[in-house]
Specification:
alpha+beta, 60s Ribosomal Protein L30, Chain: A, two-stranded antiparallel sheet
């Protein structure tokens, strides 16, 4: 008789915030977003992917983005966050974790993200090797309140659900 594989599930949460800087290149979810400003950061400042990285690392009990890619290490200066997430995904696979879904909120007064949300959703799904319907992206303003509402910062919050892949036994 074949025993069905047992599955463990875990959730994680990640968050990040970066200052908006004039003249930078705005990257969110690994997608270039046309805007006259970008985000300050040791890497490319992609707050959305940073939040996703923290969420999946947390769910797997593997620490956080600062432990894996410290901003004190020149190796990660100007790093492409897509590459960082790919490294994390490889580590998840080695430990037999599979991402089930990701729910992501991007907190930004500007730019309006509705025109690029689908592209961002597909980018995250591709980086995690999951179906694009397993990625949900929401864009929220801060109604003019705080650093985000003033347009001085963009933040992101993500949750991830992981499933431990078990070998089938006969």
């Amino acid at each position: 008789m074949i025993e069905e594989p047992k599955a463990d599930y875990r959730t994680g949460i990640g968050t990040d915030i970066h200052r908006v800087v004039e003249g930078g290149k705005l990257m969110l979810c690994g997608v270039y977003v046309p805007y006259p400003a970008g985000l300050a950061g040791h890497s490319d400042g992609d707050v959305a992917l940073h939040a996703v990285i923290d969420a999946v690392l947390g769910a797997a009990g593997m620490g956080d983005i600062g432990t894996w890619f410290p901003d004190t290490d020149p190796k990660w200066k100007d790093a492409d966050s897509k590459e960082l997430l790919s490294i994390v995904r490889e580590q998840l696979e080695e430990k037999h974790w599979q991402v089930v879904n990701v729910d992501l909120i991007i907190h930004a007064e500007e730019p309006k993200l509705a025109p690029v949300k689908g592209q961002m959703q597909r980018a995250v799904a591709g980086l995690l090797d999951i179906d694009f319907t397993a990625v949900n992206i929401k864009a929220k303003t801060n109604e003019g309140l705080g650093e985000i509402g003033a347009g001085d910062a963009i933040a992101a919050t993500a949750t991830a659900l992981l499933r431990k892949k078990r070998k089938r036994t006969l």
